[in-house]
Specification:
By secondary structure, the protein is mainly alpha-helical. It is built from four helices and no strands.
């Protein structure tokens, strides 16, 4: 059997798709993440089943691996500090690091983008939808 790209991608989605968020007996805010997790696993398994249609893994170019590693490390750091720093700071820092550090955009443009997206997201969820967001140790 030839190991193909979709074997790896589908297996990863199926393995990491089940997030421990919400239950079916308490379908509050956790219902959508649970539904997304089930769909992620199902589509991951579908990728594995239909993997023979994708390119062999040995034929992939790994030239973009450093970029992918930067994105994964920045995201992992944001996840690790999310509760400590809170939504506003953690997400602004993550977006700034992704746009400036990983994507190599201009610093002022990256900062403006980061602050704008976080402010719009905060307004939509915290103000308009009245959804509580993580406040962090600093209280905001």
């Amino acid at each position: 059997m030839v190991l193909r790209c979709d074997h790896i991608a589908g297996g990863a989605f199926a393995a990491f798709g089940d997030l421990p968020v919400g239950t079916l007996s308490f379908p509050g805010a956790g219902m959508m993440p649970k539904l997304m997790a089930v769909l992620l696993i199902a589509f991951g398994l579908l990728l594995v089943v239909r993997a023979r249609e994708s390119a062999p893994l040995a034929s992939l170019s790994w030239s973009d691996l450093p970029h992918a590693v930067r994105v994964v490390l920045i995201t992992a750091f944001a996840i690790a500090v999310y509760q400590t720093l809170g939504f506003l700071i953690a997400m602004a820092l993550m977006l700034l690091a992704l746009t400036f550090g990983a994507e190599r955009r201009h610093a002022l443009a990256a900062a403006g983008f980061s602050i704008g997206v976080v402010a719009l997201t905060y307004f939509l969820f915290a103000v308009a939808l009245k959804t509580p967001l993580e406040r962090g140790l600093l209280g905001f």
